[in-house]
Specification:
Structural class: mainly alpha
Number of strands: 2
Strand order of the largest sheet: 1-2
Distance between the termini: 30 Å
CATH topology: YggX-like
Radius of gyration: 13 Å
CATH architecture: Orthogonal Bundle
Mean pLDDT: 93
CATH superfamily: Fe(II) trafficking protein YggX
CATH class: Mainly Alpha
Order of helices and strands: EEHHH
Length: 90
């Protein structure tokens, strides 16, 4: 059986990640409080942000930028701004 978390993004109980996908304290917070579904939604947005901003994951500043956007999205409900992308209405 999969582990359940009270997902801060979806605001409901949902299956959690199988293992910590992101390092450090932020990764632990995601593992403990974010569901697979919410993290999958983030990963799609992350790909768009990387592509649009031509981020280089070898660059510390680019990784920091992406982490800030991820935390804002998953825990504060702040949608990242992606040029030309209009989020689907709920």
């Amino acid at each position: 059986m999969s582990r359940q978390v009270n997902c801060e993004y979806l605001k409901k109980e949902a299956p959690g990640l199988d293992f910590q996908l992101y390092p450090g304290d932020v990764g632990k917070r995601i593992f403990d409080n974010i569901s697979k579904e919410a993290f999958s939604i983030w990963q799609k947005k992350q790909t768009m942000l990387i592509n649009e901003n031509k981020l280089n994951m070898m660059e510390a500043n680019d990784r920091k930028y992406l982490e800030e956007k991820m935390v804002a999205f998953l825990f504060e409900g702040i949608e990242p701004t992606i040029e030309g992308y209009v989020p689907p209405t709920k």
